[in-house]
Amino acid sequence: MNVVLGCNHHLLTEEQRLVTNASCPVAVYELTTPPPRNDRRNDEQTLVDMPNAKKSNLRRTCSGMLNLCPTSTGSATAIVEIYPKLRGELNGLAIHVPLLNASLTDCVFEIDKAGGTMVEEVDSALKKASEEGPLRGLLGYETRPLVSTNYTNDTRLCVIDTLSTQVIDGTMVKIYARYGNECGYSKQMAELCHVVATRYVAKVEPAFEYE
After folding, report:
1. How many C-beta neighbours within 10 Å does residue 37 have?
2. Is the Cβ–Cβ distance between 184 and 154 less than 8 Å?
3. Inter-residue contact 60 to 44 (CB < 8 Å)
4. What is the pLDDT along the chain (211 residues), one digit of tens a residue?
5. Would you call 183 helix, strand, or coil by DSSP?
6. What is the model's pTM?
7. Residue 87 to residues 1, 91, 137: CA-CA distances in angstroms?
């Protein structure tokens, strides 16, 4: 079972013997229901121009320290495993950028709401979700003009960059969700271990203490 804390961890059962913590972008997708994202350079992108095992994508052969490299992502497929109702409703791509840590998810989606919406309404809903309910401590809300290095040690799943929220024609919404790949993922993996160990070994309900 692919688990995203705050989204589907309540579906865990004692009968499940194989559990995995969803990847960073999948977790962010679940909290924001996106598509496209910017991803820091990973170990599949070469440091210098050279042949790559993924011969079908020549962009993977280019230096990840000098280029913005568009590439595919399996995150949209993974989301459908968690929320089947989203099948056929979303897609995504990734751009490898010359960063060692911290990524940004560029979320664009259409809403179906009478009268449309405004930036203030979108940000208000995200702020409320970050302060109460199952996403408290997982979803962050930021109003300061921060950049990628400010998020490298953030333990939350993602942080909404509210200065970048946009609404076009009342129906197209764009938000930026930032996250620290390594620290945030490690924290959520530890929390998932805590959930499994307390609920199915110690037989008590887990206590979440997010920072």
Report:
1. 23
2. yes
3. yes
4. 878 777 777 778 878 778 887 776 666 665 665 444 455 555 566 777 777 666 577 787 888 788 888 887 777 777 777 777 878 887 888 888 888 888 888 989 899 988 999 999 999 999 999 999 888 888 999 999 999 999 988 988 889 999 999 999 999 999 999 998 778 888 888 888 888 888 888 888 877 654 4
5. helix
6. 0.78
7. 18, 9, 28
CA distance 119 to 111: 13
Residue 24 annotated to the active site: yes
CA distances (Å), 170 to each of 33, 113, 114, in order? 18, 9, 10
Task: Give the active site residue among 24, 62, 69, 107.
Answer: 24
Which two structure tokens, joined as six digits, stand for 13?
């059962």
- Collapse the DSSP code of 58 into the 3-class scheme (helix H, G, I; strand E, B; otherwise coil) and give the result: helix
Determine how many CB atoms are found less than 10 A away from the CB of residue 131: 12
| Residues constituting the chain | 211
DSSP codes joined into one string, 186-211:
HHHHHHHHHHHHHHHTS-S-------
